[in-house]
Design goal:
single chain, 10 helices, 2 domains, Rossmann fold, alpha/beta, 6-stranded parallel sheet, 6-stranded mixed sheet
């Protein structure tokens, strides 16, 4: 009788303990804000972060700013007023949202950015080293050309990462003067950016027909548009070198596709970065580990990997 009572008591205690632990996990809420979910990379980070948080039993409020700075600020305000326990911002705008991030800090809500840039009001930003990424893509392209010839470039000045990549390309070209940038197109930040790239690059290709041996694109989305244009013009793989940055299933498919002209990409591990943000919140906010145990500066850098025909099979699912 006594043993039976003890077993029942222990079982009840275990259930109660489990329920309390479960309730504590459920009580923790994280806000995940992506600046523009129509951008594949933004979505990959935000979805990976949300999935990792839910896997820990946390409540997730996931928001999409749809590329609007006013909406981005409003959504951060909403999370602060809601008193979430932590915030992850994918490709955010810390300068434009400085007031909202400061409000979060004053409210005791830790914020971690991913590919957003540093802010004194955030714990840190998880980044690929864009200077290293830019050098990797530029030098690979020049290597494909034998360090001589003409190139076209598709740039994007509206994002710090792509802007840095372009500046590093300029530095590489300044030291390798046998390669000339014949012309470049700068993409506008619009909802119809694909049409913008298509029209701009098509004009450059026509103006420089037969003069370029390579094309540099600041991110993979631009490279898809350029690749389609080149194929429509009857060009075949190997006719020119087309190099970009980001990585993802569609890029790997094109690198492996004998019809596609995409030669290589520098793969940034977006899903892993979203997961790292949640792991860092778990360590710093939940487990109360010092922030310096995760990173000592305003950035937590992750490694990027160049993917071309030699290793693309490793990335194909």
């Amino acid at each position: 009788m006594f043993k039976s009572l003890m077993r029942s008591t222990l079982a009840a205690a275990c259930v109660a303990g489990f329920s309390l632990a479960s309730s504590a996990a459920q009580a923790f809420e994280v806000g995940v804000v992506a600046f523009q979910m129509s951008s594949e990379t933004h979505a990959r980070v935000a979805n990976a972060a949300a999935e990792a948080a839910r896997a820990k039993g946390w409540t997730v409020t996931q928001l999409n700013s749809e590329g609007s700075l006013p909406k981005h600020a409003e959504q951060l305000d909403t999370l602060v007023h809601k008193k979430v326990d932590a915030i992850v911002v994918a490709m955010g705008k810390p300068i434009e949202a400085d007031a909202q991030l400061e409000a979060a800090k004053q409210a005791g809500i830790p914020v971690i950015g991913v590919m957003s840039g540093a802010s004194p009001h955030m714990l840190f930003d998880i980044e690929a080293n864009e200077y290293k990424v830019g050098a990797e893509s530029a030098l690979y392209l020049l290597g494909q050309l034998g360090y001589q010839g003409g190139i076209l470039a598709a740039r994007f000045e509206g994002n710090s990462g792509t802007r840095i990549r372009g500046k590093v390309l300029d530095a590489v070209l300044s030291e390798n003067t046998a390669v000339k940038e014949l012309a470049h197109f700068s993409m506008a930040r619009t909802q119809s950016w694909r049409d913008d790239v298509r029209n701009g690059m098509q004009a450059l290709m026509m103006q420089n027909q037969g003069k370029f041996q390579g094309i540099w694109a600041s991110f993979d989305g631009q490279a898809y548009v350029i690749d389609d244009l080149l194929q429509q013009q009857g060009m075949k793989k190997g006719d020119i070198a087309l190099v970009s940055t980001d990585g993802g299933p569609e890029t790997y498919r094109r690198i492996a596709d004998p019809q596609s002209l995409i030669t290589a990409t520098v793969m940034i591990p977006f899903e892993a970065m979203g997961q790292s943000a949640i792991d860092a919140i778990d360590r710093i906010v939940v487990q109360k580990q010092p922030k310096d145990s995760v990173t000592t500066g305003p950035y937590l850098f992750t490694d990027a990997v160049l993917v071309d025909k030699h290793n693309v099979d490793k990335f194909l699912k």
